Structure prediction request, 407 residues.
Amino acid sequence: MYTSPLNAPLVIAAGIVTGVFGAVLGTGGGVFLIPLLVLGFGVPMHYAVATSIISVIATSSAVASTNIERGMANMRLGMVLEVATSLGAVAGGVSAGWLAASVLEGFFGLVLLPTAWVMWHGKQAEPGATGGVKRRTQPEVPPSARDTREAGGKLGGSYLDESDGRVVCYGVRRLPAGLAISFVAGSVSGLLGIGGGVFKVPALHLLCGIPIKASAATSNFMIGVTAAASAFLYYGRGEVRPVLTAATVVGVVAGSAIGAAANRRIHGRRVRKIFALLLLAVAVQMLYRAWLEQ
Amino acid sequence: MQESQLGRCVRWTLLSGVALSGAMLVLGLLIVFLNHQPRPEGPPPTLPVLMRTAVSGNGLSILSLGLLVLMVTPLLRVSVLAAGWFVTGQRRFALVALIVLSLLAWSIVLGVG
Prediction:
């Protein structure tokens, strides 16, 4: 079995590896974890999705606490968008209970394709990214609530960009579009156990005009609640296997911490391209497996 | 309550949830593998049964409770924000947080209710 005492260290190691990759590459670990569990350990797709959802809650909670401390995550905007992501996650989680494993595997393979594309093009939080207005200041503390209110409406925000010591202020455009994308991201998260940041971060940045760093931090802030909205559905169906999930969560959280520390020393462009190709290969394999099972 | 204080409360809530669940998961894994406990398939036991068996040292029940603590952590974070925004007079955002809480409660009822 995939959770025997003999291979539990392997499951923990798999969690560590996906946690490191997730932190270094700026993606949720789910895109690596689910194929590894399904293709590598023979875990049924529904159990793998449930395991990934719980891991997402753990990593999101740990990372979000840091982003809140730095003032990067926009809590008001995140809460508004969480209405849409939670609704989508419940819809996705309920739908997953009705769908065959092969359908989920095929859909997962399809979702990996745009994920690989985003990773190849490297739309990650970068210093000096556009989307906000920078004020040259030398603050010693993160921006205050007053900064945030001044920045642009009730949903706008501001944060201290540590790379150049400036405060970045921004407003929010096209909120309905942001809500629509958030609903889609929530549905995909509930259905496939991934964070959905691959949809939300580019949408918040390109459609809503939020700087890429704040988009990534706010998306991560939302992911924990989105995952929790579908986690109880998987738990109630008996698809959260305690030993498998616990071993994976312990590994993923440890791996995320290692990856976050290593991230400062790694120049991600070449690594991202290698993993984009790897994801493409995994996508093809998941689609092929789904086709065989049909 | 200022915005920074609210942020600290949220941060503390998230870190406490992750730390508590992490400790329970590690302890539960150790007990399961030392005792070679079987891993039954099927729906999970009810919360009272889990708590009773966890107190008596059942590793699987400790694991399940640890996972439940982790799953409840985001709910607590939303509750803290709802209370914080209500206290600071940001009633509109408190209402939004309550809507999110009601969606999460709906999910719990659908899943384990």
